[in-house]
């Protein structure tokens, strides 16, 4: 890529080209992901979404947002403090997500049911806590939907003691098509700028939610969907929907 392409129009052009491509290439995987989501919702399950770092942006897209499904949870390493009673100083450790046992504690704190679906987001797909969460979920009978970069994860070694990566464990993998290292626009002399995985990850999960909603409607179900709390009656209506999942979903200030 030439230096003339490292600008706003260059990023828009390159990223839109990737988005156009994945809307076609990921069609089958999106359908399979939608089936997992629809099966979970129709079985009265909760979608447990987990990621670390900037992958939490995709988790926020899945869990607890206007236009999204109500039976969703956002899991994070911060749960160790928010729900597990750990001192906030534990979050100062930049290597916390690589320590064994962290994912198991986060899992235990949310106490999921077998019908719950785990949506696990990681661009690299190799961080210890990510792989551990996927393994733990599978061991407890959950389906796992992964959002990851197959290009990146295939180019780096596994770091978990199992030798596995997220893509090796998941029932369905949505490939966000991000390049190795995530950044899209190459720089003169090496390196790159402008990450892609958030844009493509949002596209993929929203496509899956739309398709899952279609499946639920076709089966005669009324999908439990959030209305914006900033429209009249939205907040009250959402509270009524959440009552069905009382004690199973968390809605705290973000």
UniProtKB/TrEMBL annotation:
GO terms for molecular function: carbohydrate derivative binding. PROSITE patterns: SIS (PS51464). Pfam families: SIS_2. Residues 37-223 form the SIS domain. It comes from the Bacteria. One of its GO terms (biological process) is carbohydrate derivative metabolic process. NCBIfam families: PRK02947.1. This is SIS domain-containing protein.
């Amino acid at each position: 890529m030439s230096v003339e392409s490292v600008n706003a129009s260059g990023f828009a052009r390159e990223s839109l080209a990737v988005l156009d491509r994945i809307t076609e290439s990921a069609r089958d995987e999106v359908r399979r992901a939608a089936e997992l989501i629809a099966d979970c919702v129709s079985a009265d399950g909760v979608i447990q979404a987990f990621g670390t770092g900037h992958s939490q942006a995709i988790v926020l897209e899945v869990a607890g947002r206007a236009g999204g499904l109500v039976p969703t949870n956002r899991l994070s390493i911060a749960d160790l403090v928010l729900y597990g009673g750990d001192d906030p100083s534990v979050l100062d450790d930049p290597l916390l997500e690589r320590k064994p046992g962290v994912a198991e504690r986060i899992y235990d704190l949310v106490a999921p049911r077998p019908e719950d679906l785990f949506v696990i987001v990681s661009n690299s797909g190799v961080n210890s806590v990510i792989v551990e969460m996927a393994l733990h979920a599978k061991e407890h009978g959950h389906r796992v939907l992964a959002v990851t970069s197959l290009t990146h994860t295939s180019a780096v070694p596994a770091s978990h003691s199992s030798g596995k990566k997220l893509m090796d464990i998941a029932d369905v993998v949505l490939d966000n098509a991000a390049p190795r290292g995530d950044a899209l626009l190459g720089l003169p002399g090496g390196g790159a700028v402008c990450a892609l995985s958030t844009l493509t990850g949002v596209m993929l999960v929203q496509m899956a939610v739309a398709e899952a909603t279609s499946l639920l409607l076709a089966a005669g179900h009324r999908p439990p969907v959030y209305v914006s709390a900033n429209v009249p009656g939205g907040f009250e209506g959402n509270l009524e929907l959440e009552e069905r999942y009382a004690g199973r979903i968390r809605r705290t200030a973000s």
